[in-house]
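> forwarded from #structure-qc
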């Protein structure tokens, strides 16, 4: 295993989240969510986004072990969280009936079929092809965008899959889907370094440029210039 230490110097501003820039490199995870939940991510980026955007409330429609909820409670941000495991299908617009007016939605979908979360055919991890995954993801992103307030943002965390040397390019599909749905970036894409991921400790017997990050896009409805 090779380790690289990087020191970043970032511009100062009046931001309430001084460490938040287009590379999220903070190690550790605090007490947010359950590390043992497969596919879980640390809550530190969510914490910084909440500090920066100061939303009046937060929705996570794919909450898994509830990391976003733990972060929201620690910052006293009102939170609603759901998951398919408790019967909420984020790809079905009817699930969102009666919900709405969120200043922030945090969305951390399955990275296609990298981890199978259950046997439910409505689960994004059960999609049997990239096009079917993208079409379900589009439905989820559309549904989330419909419950945003006027100042609302939708943060989507997406990683990638490489199989037999072929990248699925999931973050690029995610951006293209959001763009086609009339969303735009509210800030630079954020490279979230995946400290401690099990894949980082793997050994490959061929030359490889390893992927050690996910990408977080913060979207908002497109504004006219
Ligand atoms: C990457 S995990 C989220 C992990 C989460 N951020 C945490 O803190 O543990 C993806 C989650 O999406 C859920 N999911 C997949 N398809 C769904 C759907 N159609 N509607 C709602 N949740 C879904 C899975 O059950 C899984 O818990």
């Amino acid at each position: 295993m090779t380790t690289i230490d990087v020191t970043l110097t970032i511009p100062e501003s009046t931001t309430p989240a001084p460490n938040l820039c287009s590379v999220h490199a903070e190690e550790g995870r605090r007490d947010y969510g359950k590390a043992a939940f497969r596919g879980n991510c640390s809550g530190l980026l969510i914490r910084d986004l909440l500090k920066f955007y100061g939303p009046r409330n937060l929705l996570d429609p794919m909450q898994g072990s509830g990391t976003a909820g733990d972060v929201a409670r620690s910052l006293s941000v009102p939170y609603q969280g759901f998951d398919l495991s408790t019967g909420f299908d984020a790809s079905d617009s009817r699930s969102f009936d009666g919900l709405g007016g969120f200043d922030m939605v945090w969305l951390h979908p399955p990275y296609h079929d990298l981890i199978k979360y259950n046997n439910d055919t409505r689960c994004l991890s059960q999609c049997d092809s990239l096009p079917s995954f993208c079409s379900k993801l589009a439905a989820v992103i559309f549904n989330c965008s419909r419950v945003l307030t006027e100042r609302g943002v939708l943060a989507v965390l997406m990683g990638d899959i490489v199989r037999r040397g072929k990248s699925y390019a999931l973050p690029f599909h995610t951006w293209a889907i959001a763009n086609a749905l009339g969303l735009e970036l509210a800030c630079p894409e954020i490279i979230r370094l995946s400290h401690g991921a099990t894949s980082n400790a793997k050994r490959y017997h061929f030359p490889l440029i390893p992927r050690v990050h996910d990408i977080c896009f913060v979207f908002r409805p497109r504004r006219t210039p």
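QC bot note: Strands lie at 23-24, 58-60, 79-81, 102-107, 148-158, 162-163, 166-167, 183-185, 190-193, 213-221. Residues 33, 37, 39-41, 61-67, 83-85, 88-91, 108-110, 117, 122-125 surround S-adenosylmethionine (CB under 6 Å).
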